[in-house]
Amino acid sequence: MSDSSELTTFTGWAATTAGAPLERYSYDPGPLGNDEVEVAVEYCGVCHSDQSLIDDDWGISRYPFIPGHEVVGRIVRMGAQVRGLEPGQRVGIGWYKGSCMHCTSCIEGSHNLCSTVQPTIIGSNGGFADRVRSHWAWALPIPAGLDPAMAGPLFCAGSTVFNPLVEFGIKPTDRVGVVGIGGLGHLALRFLNAWGCEVTAFTSSLSKQEEARRLGAHKVVASTDSDALNAIAGTLDFLLVTANANLDWTAMLATLRGKGRLHFVGVVPDAIPVHVFNLIPQQKTMSASPVGSPANTAAMLEFCARHQILPQVEMFPMSRINDAIDHLRSGKARYRVVLDASK
């Protein structure tokens, strides 16, 4: 919907039990908060995190709920305290849609680290719907140079892999590896290539070698080949793990130079067995991070507009949401799925 009329109910596609097909669902959103914007959804990405919550993989899902946290749409209503936005403006909303705005993290600009940050689809309803709401600070304007039909995944996958480049001061002269060429990894390759880095892609499927190079990798290494890993030992400054897989983390750490960092944005299944003596001698670091702050996400959007970086997407009508989720579950998505709310 694109008009500014007040809706007393929002309608979307809800998960009602773990793993079941999504069903049509309507709910009363209540009064619009003073600091909230109401967005008429135009497009919404389908992320693996949506699937995880639909299936209750993390044990925190509360049914029924409407998934969808890579939202693109236009502002149709604004609370009295909204600042810096206008009715009709096209914005995006990602994994988070609100934070307290007064804690130390929020005050210093790290709203994504707020202890009471509000996820868009945990304990709330998201963007597989006609409308969604968020705090105005988390509704970010989309630069005119970006195709709105493809921009949704930037607000989750894009922000997640861009955030550590800013937080850890990655330099254009750095040699950077990306583990996993999927929804997050394919964007990381594009970002790092445009950033000016020498980029090495690590993949368990060397059939993706040419595709990885097309996406921006200068080199491709088999992530499960110990000889290939040994051959590049001590060459990388930063290794970004986007894959959700268990790997030989000692061997991965060995690819780093002194002061190198092994950084996780993918949720690997098991605990990471690494001995501290693999870190101490060359002052190596292991770390992890969530989706970026509103400021870092806005910077990412400007970077993407400047370099014309967009995710590789497959489009589905919103009415075929269950087909889209099945396609994601099959592992065949290349590399993000986006729903068109007009169909």
From TrEMBL:
This is alcohol dehydrogenase (NADP(+)). It holds the Pfam family ADH_N. Keywords: Metal-binding, NADP, Oxidoreductase, Zinc. The keyword Cell inner membrane does not apply. Its EC number is 1.1.1.2. One of its GO terms (molecular function) is alcohol dehydrogenase (NADP+) activity. The lineage of its organism: Bacteria, Pseudomonadati, Pseudomonadota, Gammaproteobacteria, Pseudomonadales. Belongs to the zinc-containing alcohol dehydrogenase family. Its cofactor is Zn(2+). Residues 19-339 form the Enoyl reductase (ER) domain. InterPro entries: ADH-like_C (IPR013149), ADH-like_N (IPR013154), ADH_Zn_CS (IPR002328), CAD-like (IPR047109), D-isomer_DH_CS1 (IPR029752), ER (IPR020843), GroES-like_sf (IPR011032), NAD(P)-bd_dom_sf (IPR036291).
